[in-house]
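Run log, item B.
One chain of 229 residues. Sequence copied directly from the ordering sheet:
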Amino acid sequence: MNGVTDKIHTAQEQIAELEQQSGRPRGSVTLLAVSKRQPVAKIREAAAAGLRDFGENYLQEAIEKQQQLEDLPKLIWHFIGPIQSNKTRGISENFDWVHSVDRSKIARRLSEQRPPHLKPLNVCIQINLSGEDTKSGTTTAQVADLCALTDSLENIRLRGFMAIPAPTDDTDVQRENFRALSRLFDALKSKHPSMDTLSMGMSNDYGPAILQGSTMIRLGTALFGPRPA
């Protein structure tokens, strides 16, 4: 079982088991296929297997793929990479979700540049759980203010949080990282009713993430195999 379709089915079975373990109904967790640097043919195979959500890190690469896949039923495109100010217009015009909003300037630009004929852009605030300066994301101390600002803007919709914890094979550490984000989410969602999404968990740690409340996992190599060099 090496094909994309087989890997998707395996992941979906594991997700269903984890949903059951965490006491949630089947379908509570969205599988976001991270397709950055993957060929269009693999995205087509994933779409044929029933996936609709795809994540990209690079604006120009994503736009080219979207153009090549226009013949498919509507796909949902998520921008999951770091955001440069000069890329916000292109992101706002071509994506349905953005997972990596980490400062007020970016939130404002995405709102101002969202075309009026499109639905509001779904936004997750990226949290820097470690507090390291080298990591992307807002700090836990600043997140409440950024949530309040984002929720006040037109043309974007605050959906929740995203985080990329430091890589580790220690499941206890993974669990605690995800638990911390889940607690932060629970503390703020009562003030922001539109918040319903915890984007946490990737190919190497999505099990602990789901058990700690993730509603969206981002799988790349687990579905598509290694990225081409």
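Observations after the first pass:
- The beta strands are 30-34, 53-56, 76-79, 97-101, 121-127, 156-163, 197-199, 216-219.
- The radius of gyration is 17 Å.
Flagged for discussion on Thursday.
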